[in-house]
Design a protein that fits this description.
Layout lengths: L10 H14 L1 H13 L2 E4 L3 H12 L4 E5 L12 E2 L1 H7 L5 H7 L1 E3 L1 E6 L5 E5 L12 E3 L2 H12 L5 E5 L2 E7 L4 E7 L2 E7 L1 E4 L6 H5 L4 E15 L3 H4 L6 E6 L2 E8 L2 E6 L7 H4 L2 H11 L8 E14 L3 E2 L2 E3 L5 E2 L7 H21 L8 H27 L3 H16 L1 H11 L2 H8 L3
Helix pairs in contact: 3-6, 3-11, 11-12, 12-15, 13-14
The structure holds flavin-adenine dinucleotide.
């Protein structure tokens, strides 16, 4: 064969030259494409925890693929309370300012006896030297998820895939794979590491065959979203107020121009009786009687659990957030703790993937987070629930007196607020090697 510049070559030589060109150009490209895939982190679940992990990883230049079962972000009425350290930790990603803008500051919260209005008021500003956000923020969790998603969609390292239902995970020494269903087709994608942030019913956790030990609380709780100015009718009300009433309790949680009323069931009525519109109306009228019926914008019933997964890490697969632990919402710690998981884990993955840290560092994630979740989140939330579910007036009175004493003493209040604002737990975790 004659080449364009006139020289004659045999077919054998030409074939050899083509092969060399292939190995010098295309093969290295394909090789690096594989390496890139193996450097990807795969995340199951685009809830606030999965998206927080994605944000931290992508901000460090790590490629991330998020698989979400639903076709859009979930928007059901769940978390509203964000604690100071969570806002501090999310600030570098530009989402805390969005939440502050869309939420409502809660410089104090209270435990209150209804209808007398006797109360213990917890001043969060006592933490002003420990946080840039010395308040609780009342803001729907979907605001956080949406703010994270909006930023993630502008980052070239990230792909968020909706309508992708993760079924199982598998792994070997060099990588981990996620198998998911999308539009009736099953696909498997391989990456370096997998994070299961797919909520309470986590498919990742089930695929790993891990126990989710714990129990479910007996009562069914109700959350009614109501447009009514409770603050104008209940003197000195805080934007987060946990209230005892005769024979029961309720919470008032303000979110901008509406209140979430958590109605805890009465012992002398069945759940079915308490779920009727008449019962909801009666519960609201008991809080503030008014001639008009209440306008209930949304209603949600739920059962609370206290559970913890038996392992946070299995090889190249990790669990975080509700996939790893569940707790009573009283005190607002479940989601906050999940975000703390996500950012703790992301920090270690970044050290391993970007800074050459040994993979054994990843075991520290479980060593740091598991005891804190057990001792400072599940135990504290359980104690909060038990205190508010107490029916004995004498025990309630003693409890209120003790809390008022704490609030009146700045040093005691400071210690109490370090615990209830989740700062102590994070400091305790940071000490664990
Ligand atoms: C009434 C109520 C009030 C609460 N209030 C507070 C509060 O004030 N403060 C607080 O800190 N916590 C609170 N919590 C807890 C908080 O809502 C949860 O801890 C939080 O939602 C956990 O976030 P997550 O991302 O881990 O899980 P989720 O929010 O459940 O997100 C998991 C995501 O994974 C997706 N998914 C599920 N299965 C799959 C699958 N197989 N494949 C792909 N994707 C999947 C889901 O669709 C979802 O988008 C409250 C909970 C309740 C019920």
């Amino acid at each position: 064969m004659r080449l364009p510049w006139g020289r004659k070559v045999g077919w054998g030589r030409l074939k050899c030259a083509i092969e060399i060109a292939y190995y010098l150009t295309i093969f290295p490209y394909r090789q690096s494409e594989n390496d890139m895939t193996n450097q990807e982190v795969l995340i199951a679940g685009a809830g606030p925890v999965g998206l927080s992990a994605a944000m931290a990883l992508a901000s460090a230049g790590i490629r991330v693929r998020v698989f979400e079962l639903e076709n859009q972000l979930i928007d059901d009425p769940r978390a509203t309370t964000f604690h100071p350290p969570t806002l501090d930790m999310l600030e570098p990603y530009g989402v805390s300012s969005v939440m502050v803008q869309k939420g409502i500051l809660c410089p104090h919260w209270q435990i209150r006896w209804h209808p007398s209005g006797e109360r213990a008021v917890f001043d969060v500003s006592v933490l002003q030297n420990d946080t840039k956000h010395p308040y609780r923020l009342q803001c729907e969790q979907t605001v956080l998820s949406q703010a994270l998603l909006d930023r993630l969609l502008t980052m070239p390292e990230v792909s968020v895939e909706f309508g992708a239902a993760v079924q199982q995970v598998s792994q070997d020494e060099t990588g981990a794979s996620v198998t998911f269903d999308r539009e009736g087709r099953t696909e498997t994608i391989r990456g370096a590491w997998v994070i299961g942030a797919d909520g309470a019913h986590s498919a990742v956790r089930k695929s790993l065959g891990l126990e989710f030990e714990g129990s479910v609380y007996p009562e069914t709780n109700l959350i009614a979203t109501v447009r009514f100015p409770f603050e104008d009718h209940l003197e000195g009300l805080s934007n987060v107020s946990y209230c005892w009433r005769d024979g029961g309790n309720f919470s008032l949680l303000r979110v901008r121009d509406v209140w979430r009323v958590a109605i805890y069931p009465l012992a002398d009525k069945t759940i079915e009786e308490q779920l009727t519109p008449e019962s909801i109306e009666a519960a609201l009228q008991h809080i503030v009687p008014q001639s008009q019926p209440y306008k209930v914008l949304a209603l949600r019933a739920y059962r609370a659990h206290q559970r913890m997964v038996s392992k946070y890490r299995v090889g190249r697969v990790f669990l975080a957030g509700d996939a790893a632990h569940l707790t009573s919402p009283t005190g607002g710690m479940g989601l906050n703790g999940g975000v703390h998981d996500a950012l703790n884990l992301a920090e270690k993955l970044i050290a391993v993937m970007r800074q050459g840290a040994p993979e054994s560092l990843l075991d520290r994630y479980e060593r740091q987070r598991r005891p804190v979740v057990q001792d400072a989140i599940i135990a504290q939330s359980h104690a909060n629930r038990a205190r508010m579910r107490e029916l004995d007036p004498e025990k309630r009175r003693a409890s209120l007196r003790a809390l008022q004493e704490i609030c009146a003493d700045r040093d005691k209040l400071y210690k109490h607020m370090l615990n209830t604002s989740m700062i102590s737990g994070l400091r305790q975790a940071a000490q664990v090697e």
